[in-house]
Specification:
The complex is a heterodimer of chains A (103) and B (349).
Chain A (H helix, E strand, L loop, with lengths): L30 E2 L4 E3 L6 E3 L2 H11 L4 H11 L4 H17 L6
Antiparallel strand pairs in A: 1-2, 2-3
Chain B lengths: L4 E7 L11 H9 L4 E9 L15 E4 L7 H15 L3 E3 L3 H9 L1 H7 L8 H6 L5 H8 L6 E4 L5 H8 L3 E4 L5 E4 L2 H15 L3 E5 L4 E10 L4 E12 L5 E6 L3 H14 L2 E10 L5 E7 L6 H6 L4 H9 L15 E3 L9 H10 L3
Classes of the chains: A mainly alpha (103), B alpha+beta (349).
């Protein structure tokens, strides 16, 4: 399966390639519904995640580590590790832009 | 369950238009009261204020004289209306009329009509023109501003504030100006509508957020609900909004109420900048038009205000629902000419 864009509302961002494990903690009051609707109650912002992004967020919420998320994606999608890594970096950069993860 | 107490409340601000007055949302809150069974007497300035014709919300309506007519003309009219309606409480909802109602509070009290308004000192102190001083006094971030009475003062003020800057009317309306010519244009427009002075304020880029709050006059916050505007009209009014979980905003309202011993409803207009700092843009000394969102989120501010006005004990609200939204809509009413005729010729219907 090809990895689709993670947010429906996508903004341009600068991609930094890294192999370092990324700290992945959702801000504690961020609400994520089973449909992939994300609500930040402190700003009133809302976002829609695609299925892949929702899967990643659910994994993070359940306490999975960066490498466990990579392994999950490698097993599920037809993509090599560098692509998955890059995808995660992009995704977390975007999450950071929207202040959805702990800085 | 105890039977509801029957009371009559006079409410202004029935102009439920694209820049809506708070009257109708206030009434909707009152009608949902668990304590009161309320008869509403609408007090309107114009015969085409839509609220007059909303018969499910407004039981009887009267035209009252404009604030520019002075407080004596207003009192005379209220004496007449009170003879017929036996009003228990009046909730004024316009900035421009508050001065008269505050001044008339003793006379109204003698007639048996309660109001719950800020003191004249509180009302004047938070005025747009005094806001920088207010910020210094109470330790709140306020964008720098200047009041001007002549367009020749624009250049000097703009040097300090830089463009773009906000041009604000004495009571209502605000525009962003990117050049001196625009400031001059808005100056004339606002001066003609609301009089002088005009306020030039530093523009703070960020998200517009608001807090509605109610102070008991002793320093206690009875209600406070923060909201973010989600849809803003070309007049800068919220057409949609959502309640927020932001303790700092609630604490800011509590801080102001505690420091000033604010009495009555209020709205803090804030901008949150990119650094997550709040700037106080305005304090509106009355309930705002989005009050029904607070009611929907669990804090019936109009009901609590009436209780305070009647000297009843009021427990501060501890919670509200986060993520509650309001979305306004426009609606056409069909009105019989006879209703309009009665308002126009007799001033009541």
């Amino acid at each position: 399966m090809k990895i689709p864009k993670h947010f429906v509302r996508v903004s341009p961002f600068h991609v930094v390639l890294t192999t370092k494990a990324i700290a992945m903690t959702l801000r504690k009051n961020i609400a994520v519904s089973e449909n992939g609707f994300v609500f930040d109650p402190s700003t009133g912002d809302s976002f829609t995640l695609n299925n892949t992004a929702l899967e990643i967020v659910e994994l993070i919420k359940s306490g999975k580590s960066h490498s466990e998320v990579v392994t999950f994606l490698l097993e599920k999608y037809e993509a090599d590790k560098p692509l998955i890594e890059r995808y995660l970096v992009e995704f977390f950069e975007e999450m950071k832009t929207y202040s959805l993860i702990e800085q | 369950m105890l039977p509801k107490q029957k009371i009559t409340i006079g409410v202004t601000g029935l102009n439920n238009i694209d820049s809506p007055g708070p009257g109708i949302p206030v009434i909707r809150g009152l009608k949902e009261s668990d304590v009161f069974e309320i008869r509403i007497v609408g007090l309107a300035y114009e015969t085409l204020e839509p609220g007059i014709y909303m018969r499910d919300l407004v039981d009887k309506a009267y035209i009252i004289p404009y604030p520019s007519g002075g407080k004596d003309a207003l009192l005379e009219r209220l004496v007449y209306i009170h003879q017929i309606e036996k009003i228990d409480v009046i909730i004024p909802n316009f900035d421009a009329e508050l001065y008269s109602f505050i001044k008339l509070e003793p006379e109204l009290k003698a007639m048996g009509i309660a109001v719950f308004l800020p003191t004249l000192e509180q009302f004047e102190e938070r005025h747009k023109t005094n806001l920088p001083e207010y910020g210094k006094k109470y330790g709140i971030n306020v964008p720098e501003s200047f009041e001007i009475t002549n367009v020749s003062q624009v250049e000097k003020a703009a040097e300090k504030l830089k463009f773009p800057l906000m041009v604000k009317g004495k009571y209502y309306d605000a525009y962003i100006a990117a050049a001196p010519e625009q400031v001059s244009y808005y100056f004339s427009k606002l001066a003609a509508k609301w009089g002088l002075p005009i306020i030039l304020q530093k523009f703070v880029k960020g998200t517009e957020v608001n807090v509605i709050a109610l102070g008991d006059g002793k320093g206690n916050t009875i209600a406070a609900v923060p909201m973010r505007k989600q849809y803003i009209t070309d007049k800068g009014k919220a057409w949609g909004g959502i309640t927020l979980d932001d303790e700092r905003m609630v604490n800011l309202a509590k801080h102001i109420i505690k420091q000033t011993k604010w009495r009555g409803g209020m709205e803090l207009e804030l901008v949150r900048d990119a650094k997550n700092e709040f700037y106080l843009i305005e304090i509106n000394p009355r309930i705002p038009a989005w009050v029904y969102l607070a009611v929907g989120a669990g804090q019936n501010i109009p009901e609590a205000l009436v209780k305070l006005a009647l000297g009843m004990p009021v427990e501060p609200y501890a919670n509200y629902d986060v993520g509650k939204m309001f979305i306004r809509y426009s609606f056409d009413m069909i009105v019989d000419l006879k209703e309009f005729e009665a308002l126009t010729t007799k001033g009541e219907y």
